[in-house]
Amino acid sequence: MTLEGGDPVDLARRFADEGAGRLHFVDLDGAFSGVPSLELVERLSKAGGLPLQAGGGYRTVEAIASALDAGADRVMIGTAALGHGFLDAAVERFGSSLVVAVDVRDGQVTVEGWTQVSELTPGELARRCGDVGIARLLVTSASRDGSLAGPDLSLVDEVMAAGVPVLAAGGIASLDDVRALRREGCEGAVVGSALLAGRFTLGDALAVAAE
Length: 211
What we know:
By secondary structure, this protein is an alpha/beta fold. The chain has one domain: TIM Barrel (Alpha-Beta Barrel), CATH 3.20.20. About 40% of the residues lie in helices and about 20% in strands. The protein contains 10 helices and 9 strands. The protein has helices at about 10-15, 30-35, 40-45, 60-70, 85-95, 120-130, 155-160, 175-185, 195, 200-210, and strands at about 25, 50-55, 75, 100-105, 110, 115, 135-140, 165-170, 190. Strands 1, 2, 3, 4, 5, 6, 7, 8 and 9 form a 9-stranded mixed beta sheet that branches. A hairpin with a 4-residue loop joins strand 5 (about 110) and strand 6 (about 115). Helix 1 packs parallel to helix 3 and helix 8 (about 175-185) runs parallel beside helix 10 (about 200-210). The longest helix has 11 residues, at about 120-130. The two termini are about 25 Å apart.
């Protein structure tokens, strides 16, 4: 869930009422500062009554544990995944509750709230994650996020080659985009801007995903 203005808790309730099976929440302030809002995680986990996937600024095992204690059932990490030895320790402790965010701009993985570009390609990071047993990846084209320009299917293909289940995000604008990602074999897709813009309903998207 990405929201500019308004109360994210209200949006969580709306999506729950419309049939969502899971909420995806990114704390943009936390992504920039490295200090996520656990209070908001707790509010969101209670508001919708749905499993909550939370991300944005989780760069230590203590922060991940705190988010799970606050009510998230999955925690996404991005910058921390590039740290030496961090993935091994995190997977051992959190297992399938851990999601690695592969955020990409111009063919390279971005970090620090998408403000810096690393030397890793998305395929390299995906393979590293597969080697240590990461349960799933969230793949986002930073240049397309919120753009309603369609998903980057070539990026999805590159990451899926590592054999790790993939959630896709960034640019999804139509039900045909949802169908395309389903054909690619994605485990799921993150939609936010398209719903808020009225491009399609959540019910329609769920129906397509179940085809």
